[in-house]
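Contributing new records

If you add data, match the layout below exactly. Sequence lines come first and carry their own label; structure lines follow with theirs. Keep one chain per record. Anything else will be rejected by the validation script.
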Amino acid sequence: MRIDGYFYEVGSSTRTDAHLNCIDEMYQLFNNDGELLRSGSLHDLTVSDRVGDIARKIYWQDDSLFESTHNNEIDQLLKQTKHKGETIGILHKLEKSTQLVVLGVVATVVFSALFFVYGLPAAATFVANKMPVRSAEVISDGAMDSMDRFFFKETSLSVDEQAKWQAQFDSVIARIPHEGFTFKLHFRNMRGLPNAMALPGGDIIVTDAFINLVEHPGEFDAVLLHEVGHVVERHGLTQAAQASAMTVILAMAVGDASGIGELIVSVPVFLMQSNYSRKAESSADEYSFKHLADLGIDPKHFATIILKLTEETLEDVDNDEGGDDKEVNNYLSSHPGGKSRAKRALELSKEFNGE
């Protein structure tokens, strides 16, 4: 039996046109000029498993190899000589079975869906929780620079007004755990929209229109603590890692800092596109409620500011019969609706006041 292919001598990348001549259990390897290159027993050779029509490799003990796409002839030769490599590989068996191929496709689709629903968020959370605070600060610095260039304008608040709210900010921050973060307050104008947001490194941004809505310091404190909750629970890092795809997640998981650049780009995108999950929003709300109570601040202020941001009233909450919450673009549309959040705050207010 003759099997045509190519021979690769160990230590050389040169390919030689060659063929195997096989008689019984013996072989002779010739180049196409008729020169004998190798000879011996077939049982001294190692043959790779068959996978479809991919070229098979036949190895010598010194790692020289012969490569051929004549898979049927090789299978026949192995069977005739009862070679140890005659058993067809499992991949070739799977590839030949239509039922197994279909099953494999279905399993792949299901696995992929489960991964993106459950695995990707879990991986993003893992990366976010392992990331040093300094890395989060680098991401925030880059994100802040991008947002200042593309989304924000300079604040029009007076120096005295800024100093007033900075003092309020410092007073609250001084009385809560920092979890290693350094919190900073920034005033910005965002096309007249009332908003507050947190960057992963501890930068808290409030817009002029938001400040203009605040009528009681407790309202400011409630939203401030909500944003601090996002930072210390690493919601921003988690969402940025998830948004920037598995390449970045895997890179960050093994300590490769090259993924930070993509995370910097992701932060402004998910903030502007309202990509916080409702679970993260509810968790940040609960963080705010807990620390409001610890600081002796009535949670009702959370209800009043949220209803202002969603353009609803306490009467809307009282008359609510379980309908949809109103959502506007003032305060990240992915937040749970204003009425449901206000209800929760008012329930805690009753507990706070011993009612």
